[in-house]
Write a structure and sequence with these properties.
- Keywords: 4Fe-4S, Iron, Iron-sulfur, Metal-binding, Methyltransferase, S-adenosyl-L-methionine, Transferase.
- Its EC number is 2.1.1.190.
- This is 23S rRNA (Uracil(1939)-C(5))-methyltransferase RlmD.
- By secondary structure, this protein is an alpha/beta fold.
- It has 3 domains: about 55 residues, OB fold (Dihydrolipoamide Acetyltransferase, E2P), CATH 2.40.50; about 190 residues, 3-Layer(aba) Sandwich (Rossmann fold), CATH 3.40.50; about 140 residues, OB fold (Dihydrolipoamide Acetyltransferase, E2P) (Beta Barrel).
- It is built from 10 helices and 22 strands.
- The strands form 4 sheets. It has an 8-stranded mixed beta sheet with strand order 6-21-22-20-19-16-17-18, sandwiched between helices. Strands 9-8-7-10-11-12-13 form a 7-stranded mixed beta sheet.
- The radius of gyration is 24 Å and the shape is flat.
- The structure holds S-adenosyl-L-homocysteine.
- The site of S-adenosyl-L-homocysteine has 17 residues, from helix 6, strand 17 and helix 8.
Length: about 450
């Protein structure tokens, strides 16, 4: 067989040395400069691998045998479905190894994309017990012979695999999902069939306020109709007595987006409450709320520390969601302006300000890149700007306005080091200096990497 232009061919078995780990968690080996990506292989390891795909500049291989193992390898990842699920990518790497990897990822990307080298990147702040941390489960339901299954989509497929327990999920959420599966099966409620767009129950979303003990169950259904509704509610309440909110969300569309537009309260309250530090939040079915409450406190404390507030500052919180960071900052600022694109989130943010008797905050609905220039035109000047954008990072118009407004400090909370690096370059070219970056592990065992950067006006 001709090898073409690649040094290895499909199905070939080769011995390799793993040099690096991608941001997706795959090992990288180089053969005559040609990169092979090998899921579940770790840096420093030697391994026998089978080539499964070759592209022009890089290929993929399957790990057959580790011939020299990394000291950071975990031989038996604790989760029995780790290989099938795809929700976690790093359970085979020790937690210490994961934290180092995330610090390295931030350093590498800042250097490569942002050309930022003289900055202090702190060791990643991790969890003491990095399991059972998620406060929200979103579980797809389907029918099988004899009842319902509830689990996860097999990696890169629409096939649902039944699951009893997810080790990064809070036990309370596991219990709720199991309870709904059991009682709904008994009541003959049908799971959703994606292909035919039939059946009733699409997803169950469980949200737990870990600091208040309150629990919400969201039954996402294909139509308004929910057979045996009364019996279902009573059975859930009986099985999990501390459920404080049961709501139905109706999603009539053929889509893999979980929620539809309409939400109806079936029992209890429309909200659950949770606290982060001294601040209390009302959370509704569709509100964005950080999923790792313990680390959220760590992240927000870090953002607050980097903001360096004395009580005299005007602060802008861009991409503010339900106002979590805004209210955290408002405890130590003169005034905080929050802006967010989702109208419901801003209603929640206003309610949360009232709930905490904070009147030094204003919230606006809109795109940060439009609202902040408008504020600027109105004469509003911030001493500190905090941004916490989605993965795609900040819009350039927003960064331009920051450069015009010239706050003395910018605090950048990022869930994507690559866009962080890109945006830091723009700020640095405009007269700012990135002083330090603190990675915070919000998502242990997954490849997600969160970091907070402190950027000062020179
Ligand atoms: N700071 C919040 C939310 C961060 S998530 C927290 O910690 O909870 C990012 C938020 O940015 C989401 O709520 C999303 O709806 C919002 N968003 C996305 N694009 C936006 C834009 N162009 N302008 C303002 N907000 C935006």
């Amino acid at each position: 067989m001709s090898k073409g232009s690649t040094p290895v061919t499909k199905n070939e078995i080769v011995d390799v040395i793993i040099e690096d780990l991608t941001h997706e968690g795959a090992g990288v080996a180089k053969i005559d400069g040609y990169a092979l990506f090998i899921p579940k292989a770790l840096p420093g390891e030697q391994a026998k691998v089978k080539v499964i795909k070759t592209n022009k500049g890089y290929g993929f291989a399957r790990l057959l045998e580790v011939t020299k193992r990394s000291e950071d390898r975990v031989d038996a990842p604790p989760c029995p479905i780790f290989d099938q699920c795809g929700g976690c990518q790093l359970q085979h790497l020790s937690y210490e190894g994961q934290l180092k990897q995330k610090q390295k990822q931030v350093r590498d990307v800042l250097e490569r994309i942002g050309k930022i080298t003289d900055v202090f990147i702190h060791p990643t702040l991790g969890m003491n017990d990095p399991w059972r941390y998620r406060n929200k489960a979103q579980v797809p339901f389907a029918d099988r012979e004899g009842g319902l299954i509830a689990g996860f989509y097999k990696e890169r497929s629409h096939e649902i695999i039944d699951m009893d327990s997810c080790l990064i999920q809070h036990e309370e959420n596991d219990k709720i999902v199991q309870a709904v599966r059991e009682v709904a099966s008994k009541l003959g409620i049908k799971g959703y069939n994606e292909e035919r767009h039939q059946g009733t129950l699409r997803h169950v979303v469980a949200r737990y306020g870990v600091n208040t003990g309150q629990l919400m169950v969201v039954l996402v259904t294909r139509s308004r109709e929910l057979p045996n509704k009364k019996e279902l509610i009573e059975a859930i309440q009986e099985k999990v007595p501390h459920v404080t909110s049961i709501v139905q969300n109706i999603n009539t569309k053929r889509t893999n987006v979980i929620f539809g537009d309409e939400t109806i309260v079936l029992a209890g309250e429309e909200y659950i409450y949770d606290t982060i530090g001294d601040v209390k939040f009302a959370i509704s079915a569709r509100s964005f709320y950080q999923v790792n409450p313990e680390q959220t406190k760590v992240l927000y404390d870090q953002a607050l520390k980097y903001a360096g507030l004395t009580g005299a500052e005007t602060v802008i919180d861009a991409y503010c969601g339900i106002g979590t960071i805004s209210l955290f900052l408002a405890q130590q600022a003169k005034h905080v302006y929050g802006v967010e694109i989702v109208p419901e989130a801003i209603s929640d943010a206003k309610r949360n300000a009232e709930l905490n008797h904070m009147d030094n905050v204003d919230f606006a609905v809109g795109e940060a890149e439009k609202v902040i220039p408008w504020w600027y035109a109105q004469g509003i000047r911030a001493d500190v700007i905090v941004v916490d954008p989605p993965r795609k990072g900040c819009d350039e118009a927003l960064l331009d306005t920051i450069l015009k407004m010239k706050p003395k400090r910018v605090v950048y909370v990022s869930c994507n080091p690559a866009t962080l690096a890109r945006d830091l370059r723009i700020l640095e070219d405009g007269g700012y200096k990135t002083v330090e970056v603190q990675p915070v592990d919000m998502f242990p065992h997954t490849n997600h990497c969160e970091a907070v950067a402190r950027i000062e006006l020179l």
